[in-house]
């Protein structure tokens, strides 16, 4: 050790003999090596622990849901289905989920993206921007049931108590979605290098066109991914939809009137119906039909979310800035 | 085509901080004017005030006048967007738009402002601008490939092509070669000598040999110390500046006896 501390002050002499250097190079730090091993093992274990529930969940849903998952299940509603009948499907719930979620996206994407543009491009230094950031943070923590209650209370003001229709669900979900969209879009806009904005300004491009055609265009892949993730996040919400959109057995494609079924609520309803008592041996009856439908609907929901993620990846691949020729 | 710029008593601020004080100079048409000086002396800041890019930074303001053809660029009736159309800029680091192809990058100044341009005019403009930037022969076979796939020097020439495609009167260059290798630097310097036939060029550089090689006139900026404002020490013919400067500070800086 003395050799290393001596350094250049030792009058230009070689700090250590050749043999010492060779010995130092061959030193094996067993302690560090052991620690490295331990940590590596620990990380693999942590990874396994994290992945195990996910794999188990997927396996459970697929194995239990695949039984009833067929074309008939996907194309029929629950209208006129009762008891242990070997019938009924999830079509009305898929339709409801798609409409309500699409509505939520239509409401929250413009609000979220525009708010993020304000925060990044116009806001810095303004008090309003700090207030918006604060409230967006607060909104991120709103429990979904509270969002549902809020939407319900809002619509009761205009339509009276006991009102239920699809748009209410969209509003409830957009309360949950807006902060997620704002946050992710904000991060993506911040990633756009300032040089590109300046390059556009220097060409005599007005600020708004710079934002639309350069900043948004450069960030569109990331923004789309963020929006898709926000959609996947709210598509499985149950509580606010139960409060606002309600429950239905028939197909309703009109988001402005009448209750609608949605997939998460469908799963909840089927599962809570429980076992069917099959007393009449002359009638075809499956005691576990409700559970089977619940699992198949859960599988449908997972597939929809996976599809959304796939679309997001595709979109981001298409729009991502190309670096190589 | 190229116009004279007159700067009078210009003070440049970042918020309350006076960054550059009392600059007055005339930038002659169809010449290359080089700004030299130590880091932080305000040459780039001053350059950015010439096309109102300075005010893009929040809190940045100026006092004084910058006149082109008798019009004060900071007058109440002058649109900064219009100023930047007349006075183009090339930055220190090449910054082609990553989402656009080479041809689209050249056309950016036209397309981004929603101006209609016919296909043949567009092709014409791309070829003319790229030829003007000495890049045409290198990229003519891959105009539809991404601009960010080019080498650093090619990207910088692409940025110059993009800047001259909007047909400005003046071209400002903020250390355009500092991120480039010597060969690319030479290509850009040759280009600058050609461009001054048509444009007024102002170039900021840390490389004094470069200033001596490419410029007709040189301005020396200096700063008294950290926190003090930068000042224009003197401006003169480049040959005079490098052989017999009037100020001692200029001579010290040029001969390397600085600090």
TrEMBL record, chain A:
<feature type="domain" description="ABC transmembrane type-1">
    <location>
        <begin position="94"/>
        <end position="312"/>
    </location>
</feature>
<keyword id="KW-0812">Transmembrane</keyword>
<keyword id="KW-0472">Membrane</keyword>
<dbReference type="InterPro" id="IPR005672">
    <property type="entry name" value="Phosphate_PstA"/>
</dbReference>
<keyword id="KW-1003">Cell membrane</keyword>
<feature type="transmembrane region" description="Helical">
    <location>
        <begin position="132"/>
        <end position="159"/>
    </location>
</feature>
<dbReference type="Pfam" id="PF00528">
    <property type="entry name" value="BPD_transp_1"/>
</dbReference>
<dbReference type="InterPro" id="IPR000515">
    <property type="entry name" value="MetI-like"/>
</dbReference>
<keyword id="KW-0813">Transport</keyword>
<comment type="function">
    <text>Part of the binding-protein-dependent transport system for phosphate; probably responsible for the translocation of the substrate across the membrane.</text>
</comment>
<feature type="transmembrane region" description="Helical">
    <location>
        <begin position="90"/>
        <end position="120"/>
    </location>
</feature>
<dbReference type="InterPro" id="IPR051408">
    <property type="entry name" value="Phosphate_transprt_permease"/>
</dbReference>
<feature type="transmembrane region" description="Helical">
    <location>
        <begin position="294"/>
        <end position="315"/>
    </location>
</feature>
<dbReference type="GO" id="GO:0005886">
    <property type="term" value="C:plasma membrane"/>
</dbReference>
<dbReference type="GO" id="GO:0005315">
    <property type="term" value="F:phosphate transmembrane transporter activity"/>
</dbReference>
<feature type="transmembrane region" description="Helical">
    <location>
        <begin position="214"/>
        <end position="235"/>
    </location>
</feature>
<dbReference type="GO" id="GO:0035435">
    <property type="term" value="P:phosphate ion transmembrane transport"/>
</dbReference>
<feature type="transmembrane region" description="Helical">
    <location>
        <begin position="165"/>
        <end position="182"/>
    </location>
</feature>
<protein>
    <recommendedName>
        <fullName>Phosphate transport system permease protein PstA</fullName>
    </recommendedName>
</protein>
<keyword id="KW-1133">Transmembrane helix</keyword>
<dbReference type="InterPro" id="IPR035906">
    <property type="entry name" value="MetI-like_sf"/>
</dbReference>
<feature type="transmembrane region" description="Helical">
    <location>
        <begin position="41"/>
        <end position="62"/>
    </location>
</feature>
From TrEMBL, chain B:
<dbReference type="InterPro" id="IPR017871">
    <property type="entry name" value="ABC_transporter-like_CS"/>
</dbReference>
<keyword id="KW-0067">ATP-binding</keyword>
<dbReference type="GO" id="GO:0005315">
    <property type="term" value="F:phosphate transmembrane transporter activity"/>
</dbReference>
<dbReference type="InterPro" id="IPR027417">
    <property type="entry name" value="P-loop_NTPase"/>
</dbReference>
<dbReference type="InterPro" id="IPR003593">
    <property type="entry name" value="AAA+_ATPase"/>
</dbReference>
<feature type="domain" description="ABC transporter">
    <location>
        <begin position="5"/>
        <end position="248"/>
    </location>
</feature>
<keyword id="KW-1278">Translocase</keyword>
<dbReference type="GO" id="GO:0016020">
    <property type="term" value="C:membrane"/>
</dbReference>
<protein>
    <submittedName>
        <fullName>Phosphate ABC transporter ATP-binding protein (PhoT family)</fullName>
    </submittedName>
</protein>
<dbReference type="Pfam" id="PF00005">
    <property type="entry name" value="ABC_tran"/>
</dbReference>
<dbReference type="GO" id="GO:0035435">
    <property type="term" value="P:phosphate ion transmembrane transport"/>
</dbReference>
<keyword id="KW-0547">Nucleotide-binding</keyword>
<dbReference type="GO" id="GO:0005524">
    <property type="term" value="F:ATP binding"/>
</dbReference>
<dbReference type="InterPro" id="IPR003439">
    <property type="entry name" value="ABC_transporter-like_ATP-bd"/>
</dbReference>
<dbReference type="GO" id="GO:0016887">
    <property type="term" value="F:ATP hydrolysis activity"/>
</dbReference>
<dbReference type="InterPro" id="IPR005670">
    <property type="entry name" value="PstB-like"/>
</dbReference>
<keyword id="KW-0813">Transport</keyword>
């Amino acid at each position: 050790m003395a050799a290393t501390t001596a350094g250049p002050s030792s009058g230009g002499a070689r700090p250590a003999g050749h043999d010492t250097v060779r010995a130092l190079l061959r030193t094996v730090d067993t302690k560090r090596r052991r620690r490295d091993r331990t940590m590596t093992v620990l990380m693999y274990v942590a990874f396994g622990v994290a992945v195990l529930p996910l794999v188990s969940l997927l396996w459970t849903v697929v194995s239990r849901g695949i039984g009833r998952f067929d074309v008939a299940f996907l194309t029929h509603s629950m209208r006129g289905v009762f008891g242990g009948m070997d019938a009924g499907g999830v079509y009305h719930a898929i339709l409801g989920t798609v409409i309500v979620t699409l509505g939520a996206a239509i409401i929250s994407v413009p609000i979220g993206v525009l708010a993020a543009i304000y925060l990044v491009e116009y806001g810095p230094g303004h008090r309003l921007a700090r207030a918006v950031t604060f409230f967006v943070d607060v909104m991120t923590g709103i429990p979904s049931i509270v969002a549902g209650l809020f939407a319900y209370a809002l619509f009761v003001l205009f339509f009276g108590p006991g009102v239920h229709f699809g748009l209410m669900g969209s509003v409830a979900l957009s309360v949950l979605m807006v902060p997620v969209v704002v946050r992710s879009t904000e991060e993506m806009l911040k990633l756009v290098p300032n040089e590109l904005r300046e390059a556009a300004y220097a060409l005599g491009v007005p600020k708004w066109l710079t934002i639309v055609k350069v900043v948004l265009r450069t960030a569109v892949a990331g923004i789309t991914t963020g929006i898709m993730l926000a959609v996947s996040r709210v598509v499985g919400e149950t509580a606010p939809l139960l409060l606002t959109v309600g429950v239905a057995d028939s197909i309703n494609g009109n988001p402005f009137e009448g209750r609608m079924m949605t997939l998460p609520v469908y799963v909840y309803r089927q599962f809570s119906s429980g076992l069917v008592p099959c007393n009449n041996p002359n009638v075809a009856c499956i005691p576990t039909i409700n559970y089977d439908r619940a699992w198949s609907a859960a599988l449908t929901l997972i597939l929809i979310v996976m599809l959304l993620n796939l679309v997001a990846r595709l979109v981001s691949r298409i729009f991502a800035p190309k670096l190589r020729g | 085509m190229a116009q004279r710029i007159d700067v009078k008593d210009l003070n440049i601020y970042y918020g309350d901080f006076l960054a550059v004080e009392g600059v007055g100079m005339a930038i002659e048409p169809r010449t290359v004017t080089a700004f030299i000086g130590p880091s932080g002396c305000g040459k780039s800041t001053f350059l950015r005030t010439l096309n109102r890019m300075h005010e893009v930074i929040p809190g940045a303001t100026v006092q004084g006048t910058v006149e082109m053809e008798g019009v004060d660029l900071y007058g109440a009736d002058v649109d900064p967007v219009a100023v930047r159309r007349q006075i183009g800029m090339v930055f220190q680091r090449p910054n082609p738009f990553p989402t656009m192809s080479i041809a689209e990058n050249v056309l950016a100044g036209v397309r981004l402002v929603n101006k209609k341009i016919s296909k043949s005019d567009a092709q014409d403009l791309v070829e003319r601008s790229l030829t003007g930037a000495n890049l045409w022969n290198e990229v003519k076979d891959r105009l539809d490939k991404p601009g960010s796939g080019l080498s650093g020097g090619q990207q910088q020439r692409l940025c110059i092509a993009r800047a001259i495609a909007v047909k400005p009167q003046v071209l400002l260059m903020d250390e355009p070669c500092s991120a480039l290798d010597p060969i690319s630097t030479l290509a850009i310097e040759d280009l600058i000598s050609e461009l001054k036939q048509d444009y007024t060029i102002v170039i900021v550089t840390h490389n004094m040999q470069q200033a001596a090689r490419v410029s007709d006139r040189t301005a020396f900026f200096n700063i008294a110390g950290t926190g003090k404002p930068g000042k224009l020490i003197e401006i003169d013919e480049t040959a005079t500046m490098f052989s017999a400067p009037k100020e001692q500070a200029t001579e010290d800086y040029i001969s390397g006896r600085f600090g």
